[in-house]
Design a protein that fits this description.
Layout: E1 2-7, H1 11-27, E2 33-37, H2 46-50, H3 74-81, H4 92-109, E3 113-117, E4 121-127, E5 130-135, E6 144-149, E7 162-164, E8 170-171, H5 174-178
Parallel strand pairs: 1-2, 1-6, 2-3
Antiparallel strand pairs: 4-5, 4-7, 6-8
Amino acid sequence: MFDIAIVGFGATGVSLLKQIQDEVYASGLRAPRIALFSHRADFARGQAFGDAGTIHKVNTPPSMLSISKSEPVGFTHWMNAKGKANELYPNRLVYSTFLQETYLGITQSGLLNIEEIHEPVQAVTRQQDSYRVRSATGKPLQPIRSYSAWAPYTEPTSSTSQTNQVSSSTTANSRRSREGRF
């Protein structure tokens, strides 16, 4: 059983994963088993940053593009280390590279047990005290104790269980994960 699933793994998904890593480290929790669902093409980049061209700029200064409370100016420090300290509005591909390198650092830390699943999600169905994720190919996956979703999916009808619409900033069982009971 997965403890957490993140559906859609772009900038918000990387930020959520970084927050989970920070909490696991600070609290001394065991490594939760996390399923990451995203297309391979925009994995750890998202469409907004991964599909950008060199002319597309971020619309926020680097000092405000934090993905972690523990590192509020992490992107600024990263840009300084890359020799890009003078760019007030860097192009989106620079931020995409930052997201990918952040994800690489998270995986290398060993604090989280992560499984990448490069399939689109069609449904998330609640079943008593867990959720079941079904991929677009129809393959059911292991039960999940909580989930967060950052990308829409097509919701099927279900007569036997309650199906939750996945939408931006949806979280389930957040109290359980905040308390470290993954």
